[in-house]
Amino acid sequence: MKPVKVGICGLGTVGGGTFNVLKRNADEISRRAGRRIVVEQIGARRDNPDCDTKGTQISRDIFDVASNPEIDIVVELIGGYDVARELVMTAIENGKHVVTANKALIAVHGNEIFEAAQKKNVMVAFESAVAGGIPVIKAIREGLAANQINWLAGIINGTGNFILTEMRDKGRDFADVLAEAQALGYAEADPTFDVEGIDAAHKLTILASIAFGIPLQFDKAYTEGISQITPEDVQYAEELGYRIKHLGVSRRTEQGVELRVHPTLIPAQALLANVNGVMNAVLVDGDAVGQTLYYGAGAGAEPTASAVVADIVDVVRTLTADRDNRVPHLAFQPGQLSDLPVLPIEQTETAYYLRMQAAEQPGVLAMVTKILGDQGINIEAIIQKETSEEQVPVIILTQRVQEQKMNDAIAQIEALDAINGAVTRIRVEQL
Questions:
Q1: Using an 8 Å Cβ cutoff, are 263 and 244 in contact?
Q2: Whether 200 contacts 231, CB under 8 Å
Q3: Local confidence band at 421 (pLDDT 50, 70, 90 cut-offs)
Q4: ∠ CA 427-428-431 to the nearest 5 degrees?
Q5: Domains (ranges, CATH) in the chain?
Q6: CA dist 367 to 134, 381, 409, 412, 425, Å?
């Protein structure tokens, strides 16, 4: 049987890793796939010194790969939105299957891409777009197909997790750890996508669509970063028996689907609370199976290449199957996606950690607790720190309540003369 010919677009960290894994493990991969897989062409602006590409056709124009009649599968590893979208759509138009690690592309343009792929009877595989080498998409889409997924929560950005781990373990502040993360190559020169939750929201959008069978709706995801988390918050959370993690959370409710990324207090003994450094983990709750955890390296050349190559093998295994007999892109058949809405953050429900600076005078705490009580917000715990200053920190842990009620309560608390500055609010999940 003739070999399947692959074209790799982008020879950076992941592209180089993919090329090397395909070359090094060629025999093992062909035994699994049932056919030999060869890299026929590479499209890259520059060479990768870690790859021995001698004997492989290289083009500086990636679109040469998408239009090459010899290529069966185009592997898109250039990243970004616009050029990547054009490349993938060109490949599909030319009847080629696509494998991509581009979470931004799938989260923003996935609906359009999958529709085009259906029409052309080609596959688009994207396991490596979420959590690097962890096969979480395959697990939810195939392994948990018997379940109604109730909720999922994940640490799906290693940079943010590294920063929060260092802040907890060493008492350092955010800016100091971010600078180290940049020096170590964990964070980009512009770290916005990582620390403000955009990268995690791309990934959560994909996971939620697969879990709940809804169209991709990145524009409706709520994102909040970790740049305002202080060492004091980390310390107070520990005193209350919690740890702060930058979580992506998606939950099915009767009203719709929650889709949110934000700093979150979770119990210190919870599995996710003990995922440290740059590691990723996703916790999924299904009605039949209960909770399952998927843990591993969420980035890096060969961990991500592991998922890219697995997708290539999957495509090769089903090359002869028609579209109706393949695993659907978003787990549910294209005509069976739900119109369950994504809820605005104001309609979501969670518990809260509140920290405020209060004047050291009688009656302040009573005023604050009355405001919370008037909004129907029950208090779980209160910590009031004794200091010699005129302002004292007050930390309150609440029970679950709708976000809009908490917004109203915080606005009233901040309006009190005895409260100095803004109230810090971090959501709490028991998982």
A1: yes
A2: no
A3: very high
A4: 135
A5: 4-133+301-336 (3.40.50.720), 136-297 (3.30.360.10), 349-428 (3.30.70.260)
A6: 49, 16, 11, 10, 18
Integer Cα distance of 134 and 296 in angstroms: 6
The residue length of the chain stands at: 431
Q: Token digits for 395?
A: 């930390």
Query: The tokens of 27 are what?
Result: 């025999």
As a whole number, mean pLDDT of residues 204-210 equals 98
**What tokens does 384 get?**
């009031």
The residue assigned the tokens 């996710």 is: 272
- Whether 386 has a pLDDT exceeding 80, the answer reads no
- Buried b vs exposed e over 139-174: b needs ≥16 C-beta within 10 Å? bbbebbeebebbbbbbbbbbbbbbbbbbbbeeebeb
Q: In one letter, which amino acid is 166?
A: E
Active-site option among 96, 103, 203, 245: 203
For position 388, what pLDDT does the model report? 66
Q: How many CB atoms lie within 10 A of CB 289?
A: 13
Contact 315, 99 (CB under 8 A): yes
Of 141, 75, 119, the C-alpha closest to 323 is 119
Decide if 134 contacts 127 (C-beta within 8 A).
no
Tens of pLDDT, residue by residue over 298-343, are 888 899 999 999 999 999 998 877 777 788 888 888 888 999 999 9
Contact (CB, 8 A) for 427 and 352: yes
Q: How far apart are CA 369 and CA 359, in angstroms?
A: 15
Tokens matching residue 421: 């500055």
Write down the pTM of the prediction: 0.95
The 3 state secondary structure assigned to 326-338 is CCCCCCCCHHHCC
Instruction: Give the Cα separation of 302 and 17 in Å (integer).
Output: 5
Catalytic site includes residue 203: yes
- C-beta of residue 14 within 8 angstroms of C-beta of residue 299: no
Is residue 26 within a helix (H) or strand (E), and if so which, with residue range? helix 26-33
| Model pLDDT for residues 240-253, shown as the tens digit of each residue | 999 999 999 999 99
